[in-house]
Amino acid sequence: TGVKSYAAVDLGASSGRVMVGRVGPDSLDLTEVHRFPNRPVRVPEGLRWDVLGLYAGVLDGLREAGRVDSVGIDSWAVDYGLLDADGALLGNPVHYRDGRTDGVAEKVWAAVPAGELYAATGLQYAPFNTLYQLTAAHGSAQLGQARRLLLIPDLLSYWLTGEQGTELTNASTTQLIDPRTRDWAHGVAERLGIDLGLFAPLRRPGDPAGVLRPEVLEETGLTGPVPVTAVGSHDTASAVAAVPADGERFAYICTGTWSLAGLELDAPVLTEESRAANFTNELGLDGTVRYLRNIMGLWLLQECVRAWGEPDLGALLLAAARVPALRSVVDAGDAAFLAPGRMPERIAEACRDSGQPVPDSPAEVTRCILDSLALAHRKAVEDAQRLAGRSADVVHIVGGGTRNALLCQLTADACGLPVVSGPTEAAALGNVLVQARAHGLAGDLAGMRRLLTRTQLLTRYEPRGGTQRWQAAQARLARG
Ligand code: LFR
């Protein structure tokens, strides 16, 4: 029947999952076979990822997956593990929310001015870009001993196969790639004293990435050979590949811990205006550019829920829907919200400092967060169109935020555009489709998207009017 099975490993900041996608010429379905928590650990030296725990979760998932034709891995971006000369991992990978990059940007910009850095790499300023992390690590004993750097999905892939590579979409988040040549930005690396020899050779989505090692087959009960295929290993690259757009005039918002909002382009926008607006040019599938802005996303809510002792989310959202709209908003793009801890207080302080009513109950804080996110979505979608000179008639929301109907509706209202929400597991679907294409499924990106529109459950939200109120709220924030 021509149906093949692919295991998609998709690691998010708070959980990892292994899904099995079955793909035929006209069918696509996805089953979750294993989900496990991803809990960052704070040790005296800082915030770290438990990467061995994640690898164990991957193996458990592959065991559950059963017979598959290939495996693909995607995860959050920018973070990495270092290997010594024997290929052994040196310490636990540092979490991108760790404070080690505080104040590092100024050092970097003293060597390469921010404007030049943007022109060469197209990446928005974010303190956690690998470039700043490596500058922070400069001179450390660990980096001194390192002979290889592998980004998180590439590290797990190495453990599964014994083969090393650097997948391009994720490499583009290091800020060491030139988005025009889609190759290393040698000049930037040289001026910052970053050794590009640490990186394994680049590979592209769809490239072969080895086969499961005999020990892995034994541990998972799989029968070899099982190929590992490079996918858009940056989760956002996989998610954008799975935006079920049926034309070209669309904007997207990948929601989850982050909201990544913008456009898909065929060339980067490297203007000074674009830099000032903090838009990034990450690399996508098939020569595309993910022109987007990072917005704090549901992290704001996750952190509050954690502070409140994990109340029922459904009830909280219902209560938030009844709170009057747009009473107070915060800048959901502000890096001040990056670090964990004290989130309800930090949000209250931001409201107080900007002279707005201070949200008090969990329902009020939740409403403030959702209004603020919708407003940030509006601004990103609007700015992206203006800066790229392209317009959108529809906004696609994919990822975890699709479960939040209030957020989807508010985003439609704020943008003044219809929102199509779904699929929820976009990253896993993009991961599966790239594997399928590498193993015989015909079609380009548009073809993959048509398959998604035919097979996935999508929900449409129409804007309810009142865009002036959102405009006013935006002006209020800009003044504050
Ligand atoms: C989303 C994401 C974003 C990236 C952030 C940090 O999961 O990959 O695209 O900016 O995590 O890596």
Labels describing this entry:
480 residues, seven-stranded mixed β-sheet, globular, binds beta-L-fructofuranose
Structure description:
The chain is 39% helix and 21% strand. By secondary structure, the protein is α+β, with helices and mostly antiparallel strands. Helix 10 crosses helix 17 (426-438). The radius of gyration is 21 Å and the shape is globular. The structure holds beta-L-fructofuranose. Belongs to the FGGY kinase family. Residues 68-240 form the Carbohydrate kinase FGGY N-terminal domain. One of its GO terms (molecular function) is rhamnulokinase activity. One of its GO terms (biological process) is glycerol metabolic process.
Note the topology.
Elements: E1 4-11, E2 15-24, E3 27-37, E4 41-43, E5 46-48, H1 51-65, E6 70-75, E7 80-83, H2 104-111, H3 114-121, H4 130-137, H5 141-145, E8 148-151, H6 152-161, E9 166-167, H7 168-171, E10 177-178, E11 183-184, H8 186-192, E12 202-203, E13 208-211, H9 214-220, E14 227-229, H10 235-241, E15 250-255, E16 259-265, H11 272-276, E17 280-283, E18 289-295, H12 299-307, H13 313-322, H14 343-353, H15 362-388, E19 394-399, H16 405-415, E20 419-421, H17 426-438, H18 445-455, E21 459-461, H19 467-479
Helix pairs in contact: 2-4, 10-17, 12-15, 13-15, 15-16
The protein binds beta-L-fructofuranose (LFR).
Task: Describe the structure in brief.
Helices cover 39% and strands 21% of the residues.
Biggest sheet: strand arrangement: 17-18-16-15-19-20-21
Specify the helix fraction band. Answer: 25-40%
Content-based structural category: alpha+beta
What is the helix tally?
A: 19
Tell me, rounded to a whole number, the average pLDDT: 97
Largest β sheet strand count, sense and barrel closure: 7 strands, mixed
List unreliable stretches of 5+ residues.
none
Give the names of the bound compounds. beta-L-fructofuranose
Over all CA atoms, what is the radius of gyration?
21 Å
* Structural shape: globular
Q: Span from first to last CA? A: 60 Å
Quaternary structure type: single chain
